[in-house]
Write a structure and sequence with these properties.
10 strands, binds magnesium ion, 39% helix, 20% strand
């Protein structure tokens, strides 16, 4: 059993300046994330996904309850630098996180701040740019890149720092299908091969289906959690939240509802195709 890396205990959060009577952005969330897990965070707009991610690198801190990263409380000022080096985040809007005058400089920025020796910086920057398929943009001014390219630069900068946990806030929202595939493959590989923990907010069921566990948020509450084939096959629940399943999950649900004896939990095209072939052979 892997060690717990992230933990929330009755985590409640009200944004500063909000009246005490207002609905908290997060309400009494109890959660444990083990090292090496890949978690998808789903929920409608305003359900609290970004607010929860920001708690894990102490950008926001609980107004009630507690958050621990590798046993360190985010309420403890002394622990903040260590927490931030353990958990790196990329934000929904890539414009907020670009600082360098070239892509290369931008990706090197965090390493320079940590006084990493220059040859090591060059190695790590080149590897991160290569991994995300943007090495050809190394000398470019970041403000001349597209939104999707900027998002990949931001992730490269984060990866170069080698955090143990990646907090990814809708990282593929601005990417084209090829860019989405590059980014998701890179993240999956880091998770699988290096055991890096991933928490990824997403509106795409196809992405959530790749995770080991899906958390569903509603109005700041952790409504339900479980493996993707449990959560993403509960179509009535997903629809009540304004969400949906993968294309194969939606179709399998409709076919089952109409009486076709398909197994539950189908989420991927290939699984559905196999089951439909088996059904056709039997009938
Ligand atoms: N800076 C802020 N000040 C006050 N309230 C905020 C602030 N940021 C977010 N909120 C509120 O907190 C709640 C959760 O917002 P959050 O951004 O975490 O949702 P989200 O699930 O990430 O939504 P989206 O899918 O749109 O990204 C919302 O009700 C939102 O209005
Ligand atoms: Mg958000």
């Amino acid at each position: 059993m892997a060690a717990v890396l992230l933990e929330t205990k009755k985590l409640t959060f009200v944004y500063p300046g909000q009246p005490e009577s207002s609905r908290p952005a997060l309400k009494e969330i109890d959660l444990e994330v083990c090292a090496g897990e890949y978690i998808a965070l789903m929920g409608a707009n305003g359900s609290g996904k970004s607010t929860l991610l920001k708690q894990f690198n102490a950008l926001l801190r609980p107004t009630g309850g507690a958050v621990f990263v590798d046993g360190l409380s985010t309420a403890d000022d002394h622990c903040i630098p260590q927490i931030r080096s353990l958990c790196g985040m990329i934000f929904q809007n890539p414009d907020n996180q670009i600082v360098g005058t070239t892509v290369e400089e931008d990706v090197a920025f965090g390493l320079e701040n940590r006084a990493v020796p220059p040859p090591e910086i060059r190695r790590r920057v080149a590897a991160a740019l290569e991994l995300l398929g943007i090495a050809h943009r190394a000398g470019f001014p970041p403000h001349q890149l597209s939104g999707g390219e900027k998002q990949r630069v931001a992730l490269a900068g984060l990866l170069a720092l080698r955090p143990r946990c990646l907090l990814l806030d809708e990282p593929t929202a601005m990417l084209d299908p090829a860019g989405q595939a590059v980014l998701l493959e890179a993240v999956q590989r880091l998770n699988r091969e290096q055991g890096i923990t991933v928490i990824q907010a997403t509106h795409y069921p196809e992405e959530a289906a790749l995770a080991g566990r899906v958390l569903l948020l509603e109005n700041g509450l952790l409504l339900k959690e479980g493996p993707p084939n449990d959560i993403l096959s509960d179509l009535p629940l997903l629809r009540s939240l304004g969400l949906g399943s993968t294309a194969a999950g939606e179709l399998a649900y409709l076919l089952r509802r109409d009486g076709m004896p398909l197994p539950g939990g189908i989420l991927h095209n290939r699984e559905l195709a196999v089951q439909l072939c088996l059904y056709a052979q039997k009938n």
